[in-house]
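Entry:
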Amino acid sequence: MTTFAKNRLAMCEIWQQQLRDISRPEKIKILSSFFKTGKGEYGEGDKFLGITVPDNRKVAITHAFDPIEDIHEMLCHEIHEFRLSALLALVHRYKKAKADTEQSAIIDFYLANAHRCNNWDLVDLSAPYILGTHLLNHPSPAILDNLAASDNLWSQRIAIVATLTLIRNNRYDDTLRLAERYLSHHHQLIHKATGWMLREVGKKDLPTLLDFLDRWADAMPRTALRYAIERLTAEKRQFYMAFSKKTD
């Protein structure tokens, strides 16, 4: 092993030990259940140390400018919080990046490793703040469409959740296009994410949400519909749920 490789390994070990030092073993069982790690579930086999997101973020930020190879090594690790820490570091790295070339390199890395974001929290804590922010300044529907067309569930969730940043800046077209595309999606994690994003659209522009619901409520999976209408009046919720014929 070269000296460089040894030094890089040592840096990753320091990062990992810092995370182990703030772990809470009593939380492992709760997290394992919450993130569906049982046999046949979407998080099957995932391993946890029991670290809260705020505590993880404090450590991750200190490693945001470590070599990208170190972030990649953390992102490939079997321990959930190590992967999350890599993504939180990447979020901070993108936020602080000044040059377009540096931002583009981070986006390329993120997209190349999208499948490593293999649980919903890993997606939700990274996609809006890396890809979403990038698309706000560099619109590219093709990136989202390619992710949505992937066979990978997590890439598909990245596509819709990344639009949260666009919604917050009054841009809804990508969200609505993907929400329509996902009407026939089979997985509840996509139903939940789609309904969530539609609800966020409604918080910014209620007529746009209502127009979407008027056209598609009868085709939406029930979970997506319930999430989307959560902030509407009881009367409106009852009205749209009456149109729902599609089960999850």
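The two ends are 52 Å apart (CA to CA).
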